[in-house]
Amino acid sequence: MNTSIHTLIGRPTAAAVLSLALSALAPAQSPWAWQAPATAPSPLLLPSMAFDPNRNVAIAIGGFSFETWVYDGTTWTSSPGNPAPLVGGAMAFDGTGIIAVSAGSTSRWNGSSWQNLNGAAPNYGGIRLAFDENRSRVVAFGGSLTPFALSNETWEWDGTTWTRRNPTTTPPARNAHAMAYHRLTQRIVMFGGESTQIPSRVVLADTWTWDGTNWSQETGAAPSARSTHTLTGPDPVVLHGGADANNQPLSDTWEWTGTTWQVPSITGTARPRATHAAALFETPAGNDLIVYEGFTSSTANELQVLEVGPRGPRASVTIIGAACPGSTSPQLSAAQPPRINTTFTLSCTNTLPNQAAVFLLGLDGTFLGLPLPLDLTPFGLTGCQAQAGPDLLAPITTSGSGQAALSLTIPNDFALAGQGFRAQLMATDASGNAWGMSLTNGLECVMGF
């Protein structure tokens, strides 16, 4: 079952949406600043980097011996082992861990070591990856077999297998480009790269987006042509550095809004860097862009952190209370928090099969005016507590395996950020209590970024 959260809350006024959107873009509300960390690994040859939101760490790979370094937001730690040879290879989170693709093989970091995975990978040097968190797919594009033969192939990784896609529209072949997922538009963004390498190097300044089916070229203001730059996401999508048409290192930083590129207001100075790696480290207060420079003739200032100001309230889900005693103990959960412009799904397991049930969604901490949690024992539901009010009722029938789900569309509406609701499911359970009903635990949900 699918419904819009506006059904529950009511659409905010256009003025309120515009006010919040403008305040989010104002430099005073979104301070970005370059910082120098206290410690960092030594410079690595052609580093690669990615952020693992499951473990809340960034992984950097590179060097002559293919070193692995782990950054937890404060400290860098060397990790034993390495994936398949990965100098200048590609990395991305795939929903389970960080995968690394190089020389036609795929490896995954499990939190402590690298594991080689079965199945062939796209065998292109300089291929780039980005994780589409809405579709749970890693998207790969481009790369080269030789300096004379560049690829325009699109591939997707579903966690176990690589599959080549055949879109009707595809970008020109390229190498040394950059890709990232943009959470608000739910699209992969790709910028720049090299369209030829020999006999002359031609760099690009085009922007493309992938919607899961086809590529679309975007128009409007854009950074200058470049290659070996980095593009990080999902919120915000940030482009940094690279090498220009004359192979000179660049130091500029851009942000993708979903329709165009803009230059954010930043304090501090970034060092010009061509070959480097970057990852957007998600923190409770905001995001930090970790920029790690590759091996150069100088080892000074090889790593910088761009502190990206808060984008707005963070989306979150918190379990409240527990399920009623009964013949089963139904559990309500959500795999992802209710982020703006995504589909938020409530999932219930361990109910009785093929039974009438209803999702309860409430706007505040009351049930018909009574404060929550509300003990329902005096009403005949022994051991049960109401954790959500009945502001929106969504009837459903549990599946033959005792499961139920409700999907809510969270619109691309800044005015919803920070607003919350509570959720709970009530299901038929004849042996549960005098009312023959059972309730799950509750979820306290906050919409945001």
Describe the structure.
The chain is mainly beta. The protein contains 2 helices and 41 strands. The protein is elongated, with a radius of gyration of 24 Å.
CATH first level of the largest domain: Mainly Beta
Distance between the termini: 24 Å
Sheet-strand content, in percent, reads: 35-45%
Oligomer: single chain
Sheet having the most strands: 6 strands, antiparallel
What coarse outline follows from CA principal-axis ratios? elongated
Structural class: mainly beta
CATH architecture of the largest domain: 6 Propeller
CATH superfamily of the largest domain: Kelch-type beta propeller
Helix content: under 10%
- Give me the number of helical elements: 2
CATH fold title of the largest domain: Neuraminidase
**Mean pLDDT, rounded to whole units?**
83
- Radius of gyration from CA coordinates: 24 Å
How many DSSP E strands?
41
Counted up, domains total 2
Low-confidence stretches: 8-30, 297-301
Question: Summarize this, please?
Answer:
This protein is mainly beta and 449 residues long. Helix content is 4%, strand content 43%.
SSE diagram, text form:
Elements: E1 2-4, H1 5-9, H2 14-25, E2 32-35, E3 48-52, E4 57-62, E5 67-71, E6 76-79, E7 90-93, E8 98-102, E9 105-109, E10 114-117, E11 128-132, E12 137-141, E13 144-146, E14 149-150, E15 154-157, E16 162-165, E17 178-182, E18 187-196, E19 202-210, E20 215-218, E21 230-232, E22 237-240, E23 253-256, E24 261-262, E25 266-267, E26 276-282, E27 287-293, E28 303-308, E29 316-320, E30 331-333, E31 342-349, E32 356-362, E33 366-367, E34 370-371, E35 374-375, E36 385-386, E37 392-397, E38 404-410, E39 420-428, E40 437-439, E41 442-446
Parallel strand pairs: 1-38, 2-25
Antiparallel strand pairs: 2-28, 3-4, 4-5, 5-6, 7-8, 8-9, 9-10, 11-12, 12-15, 13-14, 15-16, 17-18, 18-19, 19-20, 21-22, 22-23, 23-24, 26-27, 27-28, 29-41, 30-31, 31-38, 32-37, 32-39, 33-34, 35-36, 39-40, 39-41
